[in-house]
Amino acid sequence: MKTLVWVEHDNTNMKDATLAAVTAASKLGEVHVLVAGEGCAAVGEQAAKIAGVAKVHVADDAAYGHGLAENVAPLIVDLMGHHDAFIASATTTGKNIAPRVAALLDVMQISEVLSVIDENTFTRPIYAGAAIATVKTSDAKKVLTIRGTAFEKAEAEGGSAEIEAIGSSGDKGLSSFVGAEIATSARPELTSAKIIVSGGRALANGENFHALIEPLADKLGAAVGASRAAVDAGYAPNDYQVGQTGKIVAPEVYIAVGISGAIQHLAGMKDSKVIVAINKDEDAPIFQVADIGLVGDLFKVVPELTEKL
């Protein structure tokens, strides 16, 4: 069985999400990867070094420069004539491309896969992660998005895959790239950080969020996250949101400050190795999943913690 994996990248560097997708694909058989972009030869070389990858398909064309699903999906469908499954990580980009691929192939897409039982059977979360469903498909071609936190990352070095340049299926004219406002930060990327400090609605306003959460994160070398309530209230940008409708993370340490622990938020961080909760409400649901819980006023506790680090 041959599986095609979508390589996430910015035309210069491959993103870590790809490594977990390769691990998932390896459980189905031979792994091929697709690098589609503009001026992306360096990414193709990086992908060829991933342990376990047999072949790298590189499509270098302006039509793929911004990863528009309307252009990328037909290219993937063309390659599916020689592959049995397509896997993308369940990131914003992956979740944009995979449904279109499934629709063009006229097959079912299985989302947020947590484990591969066999080539036709997979597990995935339902009810915001409160239950795990086992899904079996009879489709000849499989289209999956995988939850990156559920799979170990493949080694980024050690492989020597064949690189094959492939033709472009061109710009389909269904969409166009207008622009992007991308937040930049010296802190680690949220989905790959080893430590995350997240703030919730209890911080009361954006000034408190920045004054309390960011100094603690900087002392720990951590990424900054936020609950949906904090993002909706304008305390933090959308890019910080952790949860079912935000980013799924599983760092070594997750510090939840003033977060009650709604199921939507827990679905995005409950796989963290160590969860630390700071909340003045001792009955807050977050304490049910926390490894370390501190009941106290965050406006006193967090500055003291930051000072002592």
Automatic annotation (TrEMBL):
Pfam family, one: ETF
Protein keywords: Electron transport, Transport
Superkingdom assignment: Bacteria
Domain Electron transfer flavoprotein alpha/beta-subunit N-terminal: 3-181
UniProt cross-references to InterPro entries, sorted A to Z: DHS-like_NAD/FAD-binding_dom, ETF_a/b_N, ETF_a/FixB, ETF_alpha_N, ETF_asu_C, Rossmann-like_a/b/a_fold
SUPFAM superfamilies, A to Z: Adenine nucleotide alpha hydrolases-like, DHS-like NAD/FAD-binding domain
Protein family according to the UniProt entry: Belongs to the ETF alpha-subunit/FixB family.
Protein's UniProt name: FAD-binding protein
Species of origin: Sphingomonas qomolangmaensis
Organism classification: Bacteria, Pseudomonadati, Pseudomonadota, Alphaproteobacteria, Sphingomonadales
